[in-house]
Structures are given as C-alpha cells and as structure tokens.
Amino acid sequence: MVSKHAFDLEQAIADIDQLDRRGCLDRWREAFGRPPPKYLSPQFMKRVLIWDLQIRMLGGLSAKSERLLKQIASGKTPLSTVKSGSHLVREWNGRTYQVEVVGDGYVMDGKTWRSLSAIARHITGARWSGPRFFGVR
After folding, report:
1. Residue 48: which of 60, 36, 61 has the closest Cα?
2. Cα torsion angle, 126, 130, 134, 137, sign
3. Does the pLDDT at position 6 exceed 70?
4. Buried b vs exposed e over 109-122: b needs ≥16 C-beta within 10 Å?
5. I need a labelling partner for 46 at 20 to 30 A (CA). Which of 3, 22, 55, 126 fits?
6. The pLDDT of residue 100
7. Which residues touch 81 (CB under 8 Å, ≥6 apart)?
8. CB 50 within 8 A of CB 57
C-alpha cells in the first residue's frame, strides 16, 4: 500500500515535470529565494527543483555525510586509500571506463593492472597520475 506521503511526493514531482520555462523560473525563486543562474535549461531546473522537493519532504543527508562531501569538494578528503571491491568510474573522450579495485591491483575490461597510472596511460596515451585521473587521493 502506498502512503499518502508518497502519493503527495509523486504528485508534486509530476507537477514540477509539467512546468514550462516561466513556471520553472517562478518555482525556483520560491524554493531558493533568488532567480536561477542564467542560461539553465528548464530540464535542468526541473531536476534541481525535484531534488530540493525530495530533500524537504524526505529529509536530506546526515550531518556526517554533508561534512564528508564538503571535505571532498575542498580537496581535504580523509579518504586516503580505496578499498578492495570499490569501483572507479571515469569518462574519457565519450567513453566510460570502469575499474574494480582488487587485492593485487585493478581490473578493467577483464585485465588486471598493477597501477591506476598504467590504466590512465592506456586510456589516454599520455602519462597521468592514475589516482588523479580517477579522482582518488
């Protein structure tokens, strides 16, 4: 059985999805107290408005998660290693590459590599810091 709360959220999302550009601009001002940055598409504004609605109705990130994201954004992330089983994803020249971290290296496309730098070199043809290429510190 779907709760009334879930139905209200679904209806509110559907309402946002039906907005035209003018409606998106008005709803943005309501939600954020100022106009959106110039040149945002209505589709992008709708995504942000729906995200904001979900945060308000369902709750946002925990304080711990918010702190961690701020640290990552500032380049001061406490994460110094990537754990085995993690997947690293990088888009390069229109192709998405996925690397799995394993105990003795990294696996991409079924081949095991000793370092991320070797994978980055393979992908780009140039010398890169593998951790930097994949956004790992």
Report:
1. 36
2. negative
3. no
4. eeeebeebbebbbe
5. 3
6. 94
7. none
8. no
